[in-house]
Structures are given as C-alpha cells and as structure tokens.
Write a structure and sequence with these properties.
globular
Length: about 70
C-alpha cells in the first residue's frame, strides 16, 4: 500500500521501490540535468528511505554548474 503522502522516512520497500526503480530514477535525473550522476551502484542499493534517495539526487544536482 502506498502512503497518501510520501515522507522522507518512508521506506522505499514499503512503496514497492526496487533497485531497478532506483536506476531508472537516476537515469531520469541524468536526463534532466544533462550529465551522468557520480554514484556507485552498491551504495545506491543500500538506500532505504525516500529521504535518502532524494538527498542523493539533490547533492548530485547541486554539483551541476549553473548556466550563464
């Protein structure tokens, strides 16, 4: 069952998010920011919560140089 609202502490497994979903999400972020993410697959598989995954993506996005 998917919670009505996702919170940072919601376990990825609780919402049916699996390692392939993490990879697909990473590819979507890569497409959006226009570069490959700097990550190792092993730590990605260890992420357990929505917040951990979002924090990772936000850190990666913050490293993208501003256009100007």
């Amino acid at each position: 069952m998917v919670p009505a609202l996702l919170h940072d502490d919601v376990k990825l497994a609780e919402i049916g998010f699996q390692s392939l979903d993490i990879s697909e999400a990473a590819m979507l972020v890569e497409d959006e920011i226009g570069r490959e993410l700097n990550f190792d697959a092993a730590p990605m598989r260890q992420m357990e919560t929505v917040g951990a995954l979002l924090d990772f993506f936000l850190q990666q996005i913050a490293q993208v140089p501003a256009h100007g």
